[in-house]
Amino acid sequence: MERPDSLTSWHADWRGLRVVVLGLGVTGFSVADTLVELGADVLVTAARATAERRQMLDAIGAAFVDEPAVDLDSFDPELVVVSPGFPLAHPLLAWAAAHDVAVWGDIELAWRVRDKLGDPADWIAVTGTNGKTTTVQLVTHLLEGAGLRAAAVGNIGVPVLDAIRYPAGFDVLVVELSSFQLHWMPRSGPGAIAPAASAILNIADDHLDFHGSPEAYAEAKATVYWNTRLACVYNRADEATMHLLEEAEVQEGCRAIGFGLDTPGPSDIGMVGDLVVDRAFLDTRHKEALELTTHGELAEAGLASPHMVANVLAAAALVRSVGMTPESVRSGLATFRVDHHRTETVATADGVTWVDDSKATNPHAAEAALRSFPSVVWVVGGLLKGVDIAPLVERHRRRLRGAVVIGVNRQPVVEAFGRHAPEVPLIEVEETDTDGVMPHAVRVAGGMASQGDTVLMAPAAASMDQFVDYADRGDRFAAAVREYLGGAGDDIDARTPHPGPTG
């Protein structure tokens, strides 16, 4: 049997390899299922596991032990595969370090076994603090429109390993990567990915409770650029992305492509007036530009707000780097629609617009939403993940007509308003029952809002203190709005992306 470091193909000899899988969520199960199919001896451990997933493990032939009861010395694993998000000080990871046992993430395992069906699919890798999912969906949609078999995978909710084992195969995998996943990705060696194209959309403080510092968080994000073959895409408006690219080791011939809302230079994609233009992927880029679409056409697709335009520019740079034509980009953008819970209008009534941006799970994402509306009653709060929300409150105090604070730990949010926006009316929702939080918040917000206001649920925080996930939080908000309005809305059943400013 080969040792873990030498296992670089689906067709290598994985039989009998003793592997502990940490976590039994969607990713953990995909890892266990893959390893069992490869012939490894798999033990899964987790503090929480649904009865259904435990039954699924039994069905595929993997063992499960509750986390506190696992006996690693007895099992003597040769490899640990960790699901995203487990704290770095976790006892199992400490045991692996003390016993010199390799620790992989699911992305490294996927890269090693990507050749199951023959020639592997190309990878396009995307990360950033905000906009990852929309950009990945855009890239996938554009590639599919051009006739390629593409799949959006990774942190978007579909494990990469499931796509690699899909019988029909894919031409391109568009991989959304979280900082948790990137932390465990090596930059060199057989487990280091080499994407065709990669992008860091932006960098702002997030997940500091996991990484320990802004520098460590940014360093994890930087790994996405390493070993890229064709194009590294960076944000001209975010110097951190450029600096991280400058420090990365890429393959010979790989190009740096900048995107931004301003006028592009050669090797950039950007805006000239109302036009989205490409000055990167044409031979005459020092003198000319290619038109990809217009701001008006983006507005029709719900993509006209500044942060959405930035996502479009990044996606266009990525697909152009792998050979898509300008005509295919334009036609693909015209048929794209934004996913739920991203600046999505739930209803309008009496001149008040109700918007669900539950996907704003950090201050950077909430910033983009707040900038889209001039007069806001803000529903805010949840799991802050170690991030300071005070600068966001200070920057937007003048557009806030009121704030409704939700979450188990509301104190940091309340204190931020007390220091930086004491004039803004603020009400805490002390309700802790999941079914009652949003109805209470919506009633309070409705009482604060006047004609011309937007009630914006952009929590700037994760949802798991009171909800299953951000989608559950958004769905409950929308349901509470409909109940509160009771049919009084001008468009009470709408679930459409807000197009943002059109000027």
Describe the structure.
The chain is an alpha/beta fold and 503 residues long. The protein folds into three domains: 4-108, 3-Layer(aba) Sandwich (Rossmann fold); 114-334, UDP-N-acetylmuramoyl-L-alanine:D-glutamate ligase; 344-497, Mur ligase, C-terminal domain (Protein-Tyrosine Phosphatase, Chain A, Alpha-Beta Complex). It is 35% helix and 19% strand. The chain is built from 19 helices and 21 strands. The strands form three sheets. It has a nine-stranded mixed sheet, with helices on both faces. Helix 17 (411-420) links the parallel strand 18 (400-405) and strand 19 (426-428). The longest helix has 16 residues, at 306-321. It is globular, with a radius of gyration of 23 Å.
How do the strands and helices of this protein lay out in sequence?
Layout: E1 18-22, H1 26-38, E2 41-46, H2 51-60, E3 63-66, H3 72-75, E4 79-82, H4 91-98, E5 102-105, H5 106-112, E6 122-127, H6 132-145, E7 150-154, H7 160-164, E8 172-176, H8 179-183, E9 197-200, H9 208-211, H10 214-222, E10 231-235, H11 239-247, E11 255-259, E12 268-272, E13 275-278, E14 290-294, H12 295-300, H13 306-321, H14 326-334, E15 344-349, E16 352-356, H15 363-370, E17 376-380, H16 390-396, E18 400-405, H17 411-420, E19 426-428, H18 434-448, E20 454-457, H19 470-485, E21 496-497
Parallel strand pairs: 1-2, 1-4, 2-3, 4-5, 6-8, 6-9, 7-8, 9-10, 10-11, 11-12, 16-20, 17-18, 17-20, 18-19
Antiparallel strand pairs: 12-13, 13-14, 15-16, 15-21
Mean pLDDT: 91
Q: What is the CATH class name of the largest domain?
A: Alpha Beta
Give the CA-CA distance, first to last residue: 64 Å
User: Considering the protein shown, what is the CATH homologous superfamily of the largest domain?
Assistant: Mur-like, catalytic domain
Largest sheet: 9 strands, mixed
Which class of secondary structure composition applies to the elements?
alpha/beta
